[in-house]
Amino acid sequence: MQTLRDFFERDFLRSLADRDRRTIAGYQQTVKLVVDVLDDPTPGTLGFNRDFFIRELRKRKAAPATINKHIRHINAVLKQMQGKVWSAISTKEKVPRNITNYEFQALYHAFGNEVEFPKFIVRKHRPHFWRTIMHFVCITALRREAVLGIEWCNVNTQEQFLTLEPWIDKKDKRRFKPLTAELLDLMLKLKGFGAVSGPKRHCVFPWTHGQKAWYECWNRAENLAGVKLGLHDLKRFSGELALRAGATQLELMQHMDHANIATTLKHYCRPKTTDLVTRIKVPLPMEFEPPPPENPILAEIDRRGNELTESLDLQRLVRLLQSGIDQERLESAARRSGRVWETSTGTILTVFGEEDEGSEVAYA
User: Fold this and answer.
1) Domain spans of the chain, in order of start
2) Do the Cβ atoms of 346 and 358 come closer than 8 Å?
3) How far is 142 from 235, CA to CA, in rounded Å?
4) Residue 341, SS3?
5) pLDDT for residue 194 is more than 80
6) Going by C-beta distance under 8 Å and a sequence separation of 6 or more, which residues neighbour residue 221?
7) What is the arithmetic mean of pLDDT over 129-145?
8) H or E stretch at 163
9) CATH fold of 101-276, please?
């Protein structure tokens, strides 16, 4: 019977022909892990080994997000093998973290305290280095490997944009990022600052101390500021700033370097309707007063005003009064023409033409 490795190499890899190299490498890593843990299972047995596979990953101290990533890759293979798919270890939706201005400003000021940082880092990387990185990520929304890999040959100072080569990060394609004049001035102050030798000498942010020293310095700044704000959180903050600037979904997706807007809204920044909700006024029936019934004849008089009053004749006035029309509103509409008024005896006198005894009729 065909095993998982055979099916993956012969059939499944064909469906990944249009995917980028990082995605293919992720599937290959998952299949290799399953083969090692479950001893290259067949489609009939793979679907029943979920719990054992998860226990083995937890023994290796794999994060829940990593376990779910392997489960998604396995399910994609199982669907083509027509096998029983696995369920994720957690179905709780991930809510994007909202970064506040206070958190950003607190970390920005914390990087100005050189006393709290290791001495060998202080000598080569002053506060300007770290603050420029924070500003850079908020404008470009790039990841850490891309930030530390950018070289000066990729920066166009005349037209103020940045060229990202395909190999610099996970996007695996060439693209461009605009830069602001303020950010470009901060970057140019770093040119030749803390000069280093080796392959990092041409980088905009030449970091040569290793990953452990990076997180040691960054964690000290977080503890000093009293906030938990990593470099990838600044990428989320960049998306939040783009939303505040009124970015459309297409602009937001391109700014965050995502191929699908669903990824942007699910994992990074979700548009908030807080300001919109405060402007909504619900007409609750707290002091409800039903409107009075509208007489169609009365509505016609209100619409036409003087023109209607002048066209009335004596017989129509009689019909209006007999139909129970509101006498006060009829009088107010008719008074605008100066032809109807109320006598001292409470009757309505209508005068057409000259005032004589033949043209005057009183209605009780």
Assistant:
1) 4-81, 101-276, 296-363
2) no
3) 7
4) strand
5) no
6) 107, 110, 111, 116, 117, 130
7) 91
8) strand 161-164
9) hpI Integrase; Chain A (1.10.443)
Residue 60: DSSP 8-state: T
Two tokens, residue 237: 């903050």
Count CB atoms within 10 A of the CB of residue 341.
12
Annotate 195-214 with DSSP letters as a single string.
Answer: ---STTTTBSS---S-HHHH
How many whole angstroms separate alpha carbon 31 and alpha carbon 4? Answer: 8
- pLDDT bracket for residue 121 (50, 70, 90): low
Q: How many residues does the chain have?
A: 364
Dmax over Cα atoms in the chain, in whole Å?
Answer: 119
- The closest alpha carbon to 85, from 98, 99, 73, 96, belongs to 73
Total Cβ atoms within 10 A of residue 258: 19
Task: Give the pLDDT confidence score for residue 361 in this predicted structure.
Answer: 39
Query: Is it the case that residue 48 has pLDDT exceeding 50?
Result: yes
DSSP state of 169: S
pLDDT classification of 284: cutoffs 50, 70, 90: low
More confident residue, 119 or 244: 244
* pLDDT number for residue 122: 53
Q: Please spell the DSSP secondary structure of 245-268, one letter per residue.
A: TT--HHHHHHHTT-S-HHHHHHHT
272-281, long-range: CB < 8 A, 24+ apart: 272/98, 272/243
Amino acid at 276: L
Token duo for residue 18: 């249009």
